[in-house]
Amino acid sequence: MAEYALEVKGLTKSYGSNVVLDNLSFSAGMDDFSVICGKPNNGKSVLVRTIMGLETIDAGSIIVRGEDATQAAAGDRNIGYVPQSFALYPHYSVLENIEYPLVLAKASKATKTESVARVAELLKITDLLAKKPEQLSGGQKQRVAIARGLAKATDVYVLDDPLVGLDFKLRERLIDDLRKTQEELKVAFVYMTSDPLEALSLARTVMILANGKIVQQDSLDVVYDLPNSIASMNSLGFPEANIFPGELSGTTFTSVLGNTKVKVDSVASKVVAGLRPEGISIDSVAGKTDAKVGLLENLGSEFAVYFEVNGINLVTVVSRTDDESLAKLDSKTVSLSYNPEALVLFDADTGMRIGQGVSNV
Amino acid sequence: MSDVTFKPKRKSGPIKFATIGAWLISLLFFLPIAWIVSTALKPKGSIVVSPPVFFFRPTFDNIIEALSFDNTLDYFTHSVIYSFGSVSLAILVSYLAAYSFSRFKPAGTDFLMFLLLSTRFVPAAAFVIPYFQLFNLLRLKDTYIGLIAFYTMFAIPFSVWILKGFLDGVSQRFDETGLVYGASRFHIMFKVILPQVKPGLVAAFVFNILFVWNEFLYNFQLGGAKTYGIPVGLFTGSTKGGGIDWAYVASIGTLYVLPLVVVIYVFQKYLLVGLTFGTVRGEV
Q1: Cα diameter, chain B
Q2: Number of CB atoms found within 10 A of residue A125's CB
Q3: Which of B182, B192, B283 faces A75 most closely, judged by CB atoms?
Q4: C-beta separation of B196 from A87 below 8 A
Q5: CB B182 to CB A101 under 8 A?
Q6: B259 CA to chain A: closest CA distance, Å?
Q7: So what's the ipTM on this one?
């Protein structure tokens, strides 16, 4: 068995002078749930289309199961596919839609019946099989599209942002279903998303797509805690990470939050710090930082709280049950403390990581 | 504020008036057909009389007589063969062309589409003589192949325009999904996309049938005894006995509109959608 389900090497694609994919490389392991997370307009759709063989490429190679598939026709790549738009055929019933890939593969009647029953069971749409797509709700359509993508047994699946536009509760449930499905089938899922929260809840391996490149590929923990670039840090998590300026002298980083002892791997003339919202906490009503309390955004189980410190905007999250912190917000200004180990330093010009925080000074 | 009272609008008044107006205008358009059909059913003696007869005992004598003429049934057979033959062929060719224009977007698609339609800019009469000569030269005069080829060519531009409008409204994601699952392009064209543009196919079919069915000039010039259709038959037959045979004109006219009425009635549902040229679009 090949080591990787899918490898992309040096993929480049441009439209005129607009370079959409720029020497992009990544690999997705067998049996792995790989999530590619990128903000909208970062070439995500083009990447999917090139992988699926729906778009020609300018340079690079696409290797499926260890075999070069760069020149292979879309239908010969044998990759399961869940498109972003459901693209359910309106003149087919749900059943016919799901078994469509099997019909094209000239599967036997028994295989068809069995496969449809299996995926319908998995996605809980057995009772919808006789209906036409127009009779389904958005969530049901999505599940039918996923079922169709999974119907033909193969070992590599590409899912293009299949949960986009669905309501919150349904997403939660489908995210759960998808993860279980992948574990059960023991196959490779390559999952594209523009939603940083979805990436967090699904990923084992996460890849950050930014500016036409995979800027970082690693386990979720590493990418989340030690992003290698500002782009990478910004792509995961919600609310978005705090990026703020400061001065680096030797191993001391000075910013609005105070002085931090840092470990620096390389030098940069201008430095910015990145700190995830949960790295900041509300310390006391009066203290060393003078943070003006701004907007409170209700996220359900927690609040995103926005501050302004000497002209710099910062955000943190406070649990709904954290009455102590919430009470402090009643005063107009508070003092903030932070976890120095969560601080990451970037070169302001290149956006790449140059160091990380160690402790408070 | 409270002393302002609103008079409820009378529901029946203006609306009913508009409805009656619409009916009157529609009836006005219907008059020629009413005249033809009623004339066909009148006894011979009350067809051309003054004052006109409005009440009479309907008779099928005129129609039976018209049908008994030597060529009448032939005219119908010819008309059906070249109309339905050419339009069916044109729809098939146009679908393939429109699909290619819509999906592959060859360089200069807009200009090519314009060029295609421009063949219909020129008055038909301007080309009668060249075509007559060409058909004589190629020995196509008075053959089905010649007439069907000619009418097919005439029906293609509008059909391509109508169908491209519909195809543009069908998301390419359908094609791509099919391709990824291993479908051939032909499978996608005919099994996946074609069912979704049925109203467009019907609209293109009906519009062109109306045109070819009614076409007189080219059938008269390029056809012959073996291929003359009803319009030519009607024209030549109406003056057979010296004067104008109104009973014959009305009878053949009645039979002539009948197939069109049936076709349009059957496909009305699709036609209403088709008349919007696929501009009412829904994403999937």
Answers
A1: 88
A2: 21
A3: B182
A4: no
A5: yes
A6: 29
A7: 0.79
Domain that holds residue B55: 13-59
* Total domains present in chain A: 2
Residues A172, A300: one domain? Answer: no
Boundary of a domain, candidates A200, A234, A268: A234
Whole-structure pTM value: 0.80
Q: What share of chain A is helix, strand, coil (3-state, %, to 5)?
A: 30, 40, 30
Task: Note every long-range contact of A205-208, with CB atoms under 8 Å and residues 24 or more positions apart, other chains counting.
Answer: A205/A28, A205/A29, A205/A32, A205/A33, A205/A34, A205/A35, A206/A34, A206/A35, A206/A36, A206/A37, A206/A236, A207/A26, A207/A34, A207/A35, A207/A36, A207/A37, A208/A37, A208/A38, A208/A232, A208/A235, A208/A236
Distance (Å) of CA B102 to CA A61, A146, B155: 29, 28, 19
Structure tokens that stand for A303 in this block: 């609040």
Output the pLDDT for position B117: 87
**CA angle (A142 as vertex; A139, A145 as ends), nearest 5:** 155
Q: Amino acid letter at A17? A: S
> Residue B282: pLDDT above 50?
no
Selection from A345, A317, A338 nearest residue A245 by Cα: A345
* 3-class DSSP state of A125: coil
Interchain CB contact of B177 with A (< 8 Å): yes
DSSP characters over B163-218: HHHHHHTS-HHHHHHHHHTT--HHHIIIIIIGGGGHHHHHHHHHHHHHHHHH--HH
Across the interface, do B179 and A85 touch by the CB < 8 Å criterion?
no
Question: Domain end: A234, A265, A300, which one?
Answer: A234
Pair A201, A227 in one domain = yes
A44–B contact, CB cutoff 8 A: no
Arithmetic mean of pLDDT, B176-203: 92
Task: Give yes or no for residue B283 having a pLDDT over 50.
Answer: no
Residues A100 and A130 in one domain: yes
A45 and A84 in contact (C-beta within 8 Å)? yes
Which positions of chain A have pLDDT values less than 50? none
Name the helix (H) or strand (E) containing A35. strand A33-38
Closest CA to A4 of A37, A24, A31, A36: A31
Q: Which of A49, A79, A87 comes nearest B174 by C-beta?
A: A87
- Domain extent, residue A342, equals 240-360
Same domain, A253 and A322: yes
At residue B103, φ and ψ (nearest 5 deg) are -95, -40
DSSP structure class, residue B46: G
Whether residues B17 and B128 fall in one domain: no
B172 and B88 both lie in a single domain: yes
Residue-wise pLDDT tens digits, B45-102: 777 777 777 778 888 888 888 888 878 889 999 999 999 999 999 999 999 999 999 9
pLDDT at B166 over 70: yes
What pLDDT shows up at residue B284? 34
Q: Are residues A150 and A200 part of one domain?
A: yes
Residues B44 and B122 in one domain: no
Q: How many domains does one find in chain B? A: 2
* Dihedral pair phi/psi, residue A242, rounded to 5°: -80, 130
| B284 vs A77, A81, A85: nearest CB | A85
Q: Do you find a cis peptide bond into A239, omega within 30 degrees of 0?
A: yes
